[in-house]
Amino acid sequence: MKIRRYAMLRSGRLIRPFVALLCMLLPWGARADCVGSPYPRIRALQHLSEADAARAVRAVRARLAASAGKPGADPRRQAALYAVLAQSYSRLELDGEARAAALKGLSLGTDKRDPVRVDLLEAYAENVYDAPGIRAALHSIQTATAAQTHGSLNATCLRITEGILEYRLDRPDLAIGPLTRAYRSPQAPRGSEPRMFAADALTAVMRALGDYREALALNRQVIAWDLAHRASLSLSVSKYVRGTILKLMHDYTGAIREFTASRVLSVPLHDLQGIAFEDLRICETRVAIGDYRRAAGECRRALPAFIAAHSTDVIKETRAVLARIDLGEGHPRRALAELNGVLDHAGEDMPPRRVSILYLWRARTNAALGRYRQAYADLAEYSRRITADYGAERLRQAAAMRARFATDEEIERNRDLKHELALSQERSRRQAEELKRNAAIFFSGLVVIALLIYISIASSRHRRALVRLATIDGLTGLPNRRRTAELANEALQAARARSEPLTVAIIDLDHFKSINDCCGHAAGDHVLREVGRAALQVLRAGDVFGRWGGEEFLLVAPNTTLDTALGILERLRASLLAIELPTSAAGLRVKLSAGLATLDAKAVTLDELIASADEALYEAKSQGRDLVRIAAHGRLSTTRSAGGAPGH
User: Fold this and answer.
1) Is residue 137 located within the same domain as residue 246?
2) Are residues 87 and 171 in the same domain?
3) Mean pLDDT over all residues of the chain?
4) Burial category of 98 from C-beta neighbours within 10 Å (exposed 0-12, middle 13-18, buried 19 and up)
5) According to the per-residue pLDDT averaged within each range, which of 34-48, 192-206, 354-368 is highest?
């Protein structure tokens, strides 16, 4: 079973001849594919493919050539050879050749439950990376799974492939079902290869769902398997996967360490594609920390290997990162040209989950160039793709990085406006031509001036529309005050209609001015961003959390009693304590004070609830900070004493 680094799946690589020989003599972890060939000699070719894919290609093609045209050749054995050929091409990142070999084998017509047919279906499906092709491959895999005996090894391996394809379609919520069933299948006991394959794929899915701790735990299982079987090729990929998870957790130092360790393993194996992927990920991580100069060198070092392999999707991904570097270094025109080339097919030639963000980057690039109409169009496309491609859970996980825009009706009105503008420009052009033929230059000049004024007014309208659409705080990624108030009023009305409790909290960061004074405003901005990230991890679906102003935040918890709200604030307080500050902030920690108020007969409007919570916050501040105070109720401190638990 071939799993690309790019898709965070397992893959074998081409290695030097003496390493391949060692793999055949020692138990170096030469991994058979999930099902495995029923023919011992062909199974040996599968092991050879794991160790030296290029050599396996030559051996299989020689056998196929020798049997070509011979009467009485066994079509099932021929199909099994094509399965090994497809798997070998796959490990060499030759996706087109792998698909062609798989289709050739499938054309020989084996039984639906034949392990050879399952190998061929998996080899084809796992080498498809465009969205229409993935959907077609997924249908074939699901049809094949339905034809298998329940609980069989064939069914288990097909479920793993189904999960991988669902993941590539950016549907981790649908991928987790078949992968979990495969992981827990009796055909995948602890320590077995199918179990390891399922764990490896689940690592990517858990990462996509934002459950990074579970993803790291699964990744540790795979790394332990690789180490136990001395599987250097697989260990290199596992280290790479670990780096991607740490990068998403904003542990950039740890991510670079793991990517570098993966690269060290790849170099002696002559794993050129692997080295290129590791360089690309190190480049991305350096971009995240603003180290553009070193990042550019690593991205450019990776690009030739992807070009040589004709890996269009990865080439475009690398070019997109180089565009981000150009934008960060103040070269928006160069960045825009690069991004236009990347999106020349509207993202259809790239994995879907990597396309949406490209429109956001291009929107920022257009905005930097003053091209507000194009920026708005890209922002609308980014919003549409995020809404269409992600389920509710994914939307919640992506809330910190998602921009909110106008309704579909407003987008449609904007499209109509652009269409009217184009028609008006065409009419004006024709009028200008007619006037040139029949009137004096003076009248032509008037038409040109009128056209410029019209375009200026239309551009001003677009700018105002873009400002009106902005409902996200630019620093934290949280809803801004206006949007937070809208969501809070909706929650209040729903609570009254259902006669449910509702709790409101005003949260203020303690000594935030001291952090700014000691560490600088950049550190203060970092703290505010981390507060937003921590809140999204702690809060529940349905809770409203937005930036209320400065270092103040508003929490609205529907169907929540005071006790539950106190528990939420305690978890948030613990997350804030883990935020790291620069060394110049000696003795300072990120702490909060909060005032709580709950919906009752006395507080009938949102303003009254917030005013009650604000009074409680003032009381918490005046009594020493790092406290929670409840409006018109008993008092509770969030400061942990030596006894551990919060005290009343």
Assistant:
1) no
2) no
3) 81
4) buried
5) 354-368
Identify the helix (H) or strand (E) that includes residue 544. Answer: strand 544-549
Helix (H, G, I), strand (E, B) or coil at 597: strand
Nearest to 310 by CA among 89, 104, 119: 89
Instruction: Name the DSSP letter for residue 188.
Output: S
Dump pLDDT digits (tens) for 317-358. 999 999 999 999 999 999 999 999 999 988 788 877 678 889
Rounded to whole angstroms, the Cα distance separating 544 from 563 reads 17
Mean pLDDT of 347-371: 87
Q: What residues does 549 pair with on adjacent strands?
A: 552
Same domain, 488 and 622: yes
**Exposed/middle/buried for 266, CB within 10 Å: 0-12, 13-18, 19+?**
buried
Q: Are residues 414 and 548 in the same domain?
A: no
Range of the domain at 224: 128-229
Which residues neighbour 192 within 8 Å (Cβ) at sequence distance 6 or greater? none
Is 379 part of any domain?
Answer: no
Residue 50 amino acid letter: E
DSSP letter for each residue of 217-249: HHHHHHHHHHHHTT-HHHHHHHHHHHHHHHHHT
In a domain, residue 535? The reply is yes
My answer on whether 553 and 608 are in the same domain is: yes
DSSP state of 109: -
pLDDT at 639: 43
| Residues 434 and 295 placed together within one structural domain of the fold | no
Which residue's entry shows tokens 């050599």?
55
Q: Of 172, 213, 188, give the one whose Cα is nearest residue 7.
A: 172
Percent of the chain with pLDDT over 70: 82
State the virtual CA torsion across 166, 192, 4, 362 in degrees, nearest 10.
50
Task: Verify that 571 and 490 share a domain, yes or no.
Answer: yes
- Considering the entire predicted model, what is its pTM? 0.49
CA-based angle 153:154:158, to the nearest 5? 115
Q: Mind listing the pLDDT tens digit for each residue in 236-279?
A: 889 999 999 999 999 999 999 999 999 999 888 788 888 999 99
**Which pLDDT score, from 0 to 100, does residue 558 have?**
94
pLDDT for position 191: 65
CB atoms near residue 268 (< 10 Å): 11
CA triple 238-243-245, angle to 5 deg: 100
Q: Are 255 and 244 in contact (CB under 8 A)?
A: yes
Does 222 share its domain with 202?
A: yes
